[in-house]
């Protein structure tokens, strides 16, 4: 090897080593970035999820009526304080009536209300509280569209039918059964239109983290649909849009209240939007 060839070979070796060192540093930097992203606050990552362009109404634990667009529930579209209820009363659940489209609510004073969705003003239905009264603060509250009655189920297994015109208990139905220690706190009927002739009632059980069909509803029998696919600590609202395209629930997972889409065939819950701006007690899609 000539001196020139030896010098050239030395330069090439140094260049190759430099390239390898640079590549190793780049890969290490990339790996660090991936690890940093993976270990970053899940809340910020989750909040990048954009949901469908559909509006719904919700209530929180402080008697606020909130209008959201599912595209981003970090921020509300509009918010009102609910007025016209009994002193110190808590609104426990809401739903839109398929007939006429009014927003209904049930309160802790055992009263049914209609709520003006433009102002938050509540008007009691009937003159006296219904009996038997609601036996829990976590409830499922939804209209049966085929008979125009309200289904009220509770975390303690209560199963009532309420009359939307008089505010009284139409029937005391059989307690929820078929699942040991079930804690049902959210309920939703299908086919939410005024001309519906058939409907099914689905409920979410916080204890087993599962979706059930309550069939028949009046007997309170819980038939398993499937696992939600996660451990939830609360189900604060569950509803199905009138066109059947949106099946949504507010679920608390790892301390965060988020909007989920529920598969009625499998029971699986899938994140549908960002985290809610506050804990949600109930939600409802307008029926008209």
Indicate how many domains the architecture comprises.
Answer: 2
Q: What is the terminal-to-terminal distance?
A: 90 Å
The percent range for helix content is: 10-25%
Question: For the CA atoms, what is the radius of gyration?
Answer: 26 Å
> How much strand content do the residues show?
35-45%
Describe the 3D structure.
With 288 residues, the chain is mainly β. It has 2 helices and 20 strands. The protein folds into 2 domains: 1-40; 45-284, 6 Propeller (Neuraminidase), CATH 2.120.10. The chain has a 4-stranded antiparallel beta sheet with strand order 3-2-1-20, with no helix packed on it. Residues 65-284 form the DUF4394 domain. It holds the Pfam family DUF4394. It comes from Sphingobacterium corticibacter. This is DUF4394 domain-containing protein.
Summarize the structure.
Helix content is 14%, strand content 37%.
List the helices and strands and how they pair.
Layout: H1 3-38, H2 42-46, E1 55-59, E2 64-69, E3 78-81, E4 91-96, E5 103-107, E6 112-115, E7 122-125, E8 139-144, E9 149-154, E10 159-162, E11 169-172, E12 184-189, E13 201-205, E14 210-214, E15 222-227, E16 234-240, E17 247-253, E18 256-262, E19 269-275, E20 282-284
Antiparallel strand pairs: 1-2, 1-20, 2-3, 4-5, 5-6, 6-7, 8-9, 9-10, 10-11, 12-13, 13-14, 14-15, 16-17, 17-18, 18-19
Protein name: DUF4394 domain-containing protein
Domain DUF4394: 65-284
């Amino acid at each position: 090897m000539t001196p020139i060839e030896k010098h050239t070979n030395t330069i090439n070796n140094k260049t190759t080593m430099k390239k390898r060192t640079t590549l190793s540093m780049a890969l290490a930097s990339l790996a660090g970035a991936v690890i940093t992203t993976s270990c970053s606050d899940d809340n910020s990552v989750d909040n990048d999820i954009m949901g469908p362009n559909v509006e719904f109404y919700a209530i929180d634990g402080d008697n606020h009526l909130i209008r959201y667009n599912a595209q981003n529930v970090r921020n509300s579209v509009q918010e009102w304080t609910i007025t016209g209820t009994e002193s110190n009363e808590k609104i426990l659940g809401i739903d839109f009536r398929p007939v006429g489209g009014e927003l209904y609510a049930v309160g802790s004073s055992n009263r049914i209300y209609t709520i003006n969705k433009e102002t938050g003003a509540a008007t009691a239905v009937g003159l006296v509280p219904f009996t038997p009264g609601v036996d829990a603060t976590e409830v499922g509250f939804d209209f049966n569209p085929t008979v125009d009655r309200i289904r009220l189920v509770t975390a303690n297994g209560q199963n009532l039918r309420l009359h939307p015109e008089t505010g009284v208990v139409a029937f005391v139905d059989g307690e929820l059964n078929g699942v040991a220690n079930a804690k049902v706190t959210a309920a939703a009927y299908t086919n939410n239109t005024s001309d519906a002739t058939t409907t099914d009632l689905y409920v979410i059980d916080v204890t087993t983290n599962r979706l059930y069909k309550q069939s028949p509803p009046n007997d309170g029998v819980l038939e398993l649909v499937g696992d939600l696919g996660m451990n939830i600590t609360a189900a604060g609202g569950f509803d199905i849009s009138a066109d059947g395209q949106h099946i949504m629930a507010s679920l608390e997972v790892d301390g965060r209240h988020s909007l989920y889409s529920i598969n009625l065939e499998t029971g699986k819950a899938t994140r549908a939007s960002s985290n809610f701006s506050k804990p949600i007690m109930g939600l409802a899609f307008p029926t008209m």
